[in-house]
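Dear V.,

Thank you for sending over the compound details. I've combined the ligand you provided, flavin mononucleotide, with the protein sequence from our construct and run the structure prediction for the complex. I'm sharing the raw inputs here so there's no ambiguity about protonation or stereochemistry in the SMILES, which I know was a concern on your side last time.
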Amino acid sequence: MAKPKIAVVFYSTYGTNHRIAKTAAEAAEAAGAQVRLRRIAETAPSEVVNGQENWKRQLAAMQDIPEVSHDDMIWANGYFFSTPTRYGVPASQMRAFIDTLGGPWSEGKLADKVATAATSAQNVHGGQETTLWSLYVTFMHWGAILVPPGYTHEALYETGGNPYGFSTEAGKLDDAGRKSIAHQAERLVKYAARLPY
Ligand SMILES: Cc1cc2nc3c(=O)[nH]c(=O)nc-3n(C[C@H](O)[C@H](O)[C@H](O)COP(=O)(O)O)c2cc1C
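Below is the predicted structure of the protein with flavin mononucleotide bound, written out as structure tokens.
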């Protein structure tokens, strides 16, 4: 049987979602998938990025990771998205990429994939759930099969118990968090392997 193909697609300004995505990618690979770890291109003006030392440093730290392309989205049969929460929704950088996908979407090339998502926010109740719901609405428009974690692993109870997808406060990623992310990624691979193609 062919290996499931998972695209782990993330945007990160300060590193949290980079670490979430890396953890998901490693877990998906260990679970037997072919994995493409891909970052969303920065769209903020360079003077804004360079005006913040932490932002500049994080962008430099991700230079080895390829930017996500339409080919990655068509190639994959499973998506793991990770984005910071911005005013209760995904970062505009991620939305900007999503909004380029009209072509593949209209040709049915984003349909029939499994999909799941993770996020971080500054505050405990800063909009994590609405960010995940927002992404899931888009995944539904693509014709995806949603694979949220629900309460299918005990680590979820130690990480805030978000049944929609892993979420954390910005900058926080401990062992329980890594276990939750790994479980979510393994579950994605499990259902990607069951797709009828
Ligand atoms: C423009 C902007 C809007 C934000 N909106 C929210 C928000 O609605 N709720 C919240 O808790 N944190 C908010 N934050 C904080 C981000 O969620 C936080 O920086 C992010 O989770 C860090 O992820 P990263 O380390 O991957 O960049 C916002 C940050 C920025 C810059």
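A first observation: The mean pLDDT is 97.

Warm regards,
I. M.
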